[in-house]
Every structure is written in structure tokens, then in C-alpha cells.
Amino acid sequence: MKAIIKPMSILLSAMMIISVFTIVPVGAAAAVTCVDRTWDADEKKIVETSTTTTDYTSLSSGITELQTGKYVLDSDVTYSKRLRVKSGARAELILVNDKTLKNDKGIIVPENATLTVYGQAASGDVKADSGIVDAYNPDGAAIGAMDEEKTGSIIIMGGTVKATGGTKDAGIGTGKNHSSGFEEIAIYGGNITAQGGKCGAGIGAGRANSS
Questions:
Q1: Taking burial as the number of CB atoms within 10 A of a residue's CB, which of 15, 76, 201, 206 is the most buried?
Q2: How far apart are CA 159 and CA 153, in angstroms?
């Protein structure tokens, strides 16, 4: 497993944001333009690619499993159940207009699944802390996996992310005990606050994790 955090600070500058989404009215829908930015091999030059789509789903509390595709948080949403990425899926969560996703049961990213989180300003300008995810899990990582389960890939491109794990669990990463582990945690932008429970990492592994 590997963990990548760029830049080194947990509170990341909006200037270093890697991806940004632009929302432009198109009739009754809104076109979402994704601008992906990655460093070149020497980490001295930004390489950009962009795509525009209207093919996304507005996130609501009625959606408890994320499939492969784009989900836009365009209204405040509160979950009383766990939000789970389907096993094997590659889900993209786009945070816009300073809306908040609150979940007190955890956002589960199982083994072989990927969750990518993007931040977006209401005006469409680059803004790392627009849109909020506020997650807590009493029985595992706030964003990651339950105790004794393996976590897939968690990639944060931007947004404000607050993650608090349960006792001995990580905020972002894994729950506790030896059978847990994670495939990848990559943070490229945003305003991140991650707190593990007692003996759990803020970002990484829970207690008694040998992976």
C-alpha cells in the first residue's frame, strides 16, 4: 500500500489545487468541466487535460451506494446510514457551491474501489476549500473501511474534508486490527482535517495494523 500527500502540509494551498470543476448552465442541466492537473516527472511543470460532461448524478440521502461515475453535491445532504462505494467501482464526488455532506456512519471505500473527491468554487474559479465533507465513523475509519476490512483507493483533489475515526481507527484510511490495510491514499489539494480515535492515525492506519 502507499500513501501520497502533496504538498507536505495538511492544510493545502488553493494555488496547489490539482483539479477544478466548472459548472455552466446548459438549458435545464449544467455542464461539468473537469480539469485534471498532474506534475511532470520532475515535479516542475503542471500538465493539464480537461473534459466536459452533463452525465452525472446529483447526490441525495437516498443514494447509499456510489457506482462508477460522477456525483455532484449541489445541495446540503445528511446521511443517517453509511455511504458506500460499490466494490470495484471508481466513483467521483464533486463538491460545489459550499454545500455540505454530513455523515455520522462513515464513507466506506472497500478493497478494489476508488473514491476521488474534488472541490469547486461557486463561481467556477479555483478554490480548494469549496464544498464540505464532514464524516465520522464510530466503528471504523471516517473515510475508508470498517474494522478488520481492507480499504481501496482514496484520492482527494480539493474541497474541505473533515474526517474523524472511531476508537483506534484512522480518520482517513483503515480501521483497527491486523486484517485491515489500504491500497492508496493520495491528497493533492484541499483543506483537510483528519483525526483518528485513540491510537489511530489521522491519515493512514488504525491501531494494530501490520499492513
A1: 206
A2: 17
Alpha-carbon distance of 95 to 98, in angstroms, equals 7
Read out DSSP for 85-130?
Answer: EPTT-EEEEEE-TT-EEEESS-EE-BTT-EEEEEE--TTSS--TT-
Q: Which three three-digit cell numbers place residue 6?
A: 502533496
Q: Chain-centre distance of CA 115, in angstroms?
A: 6
Cβ-Cβ contacts under 8 Å for 129 (sequence gap 6 or more) = 14, 119, 158, 159, 160, 190, 191
Which letter does DSSP use for residue 199 in this model?
T
SS3 content of the chain, % helix, strand, coil (to 5): 0, 50, 50
- Report the 10 Å Cβ neighbour count for 129: 21
Are 120 and 93 spatial neighbours (Cβ–Cβ below 8 Å)? no
What is the reported pTM?
0.78
Contacts of 164 (CB under 8 A, 6+ apart): 135, 136, 137, 142, 171, 194, 195, 197
3-state secondary structure of 71: strand
7 upstream amide cis, omega within 30 of 0: yes
pLDDT digits (tens, 9 = 90+) for 132-185: 999 999 988 999 988 878 899 999 888 899 999 988 888 998 877 656 567 889
C-alpha triplet 72, 11, 114: angle, nearest 5°: 40
Cell of 124: 467556477
Distance CA 184, CA 49 (A): 23
Residue 16, helix vs strand vs coil? helix
The residues facing 42 across adjacent strands are: none
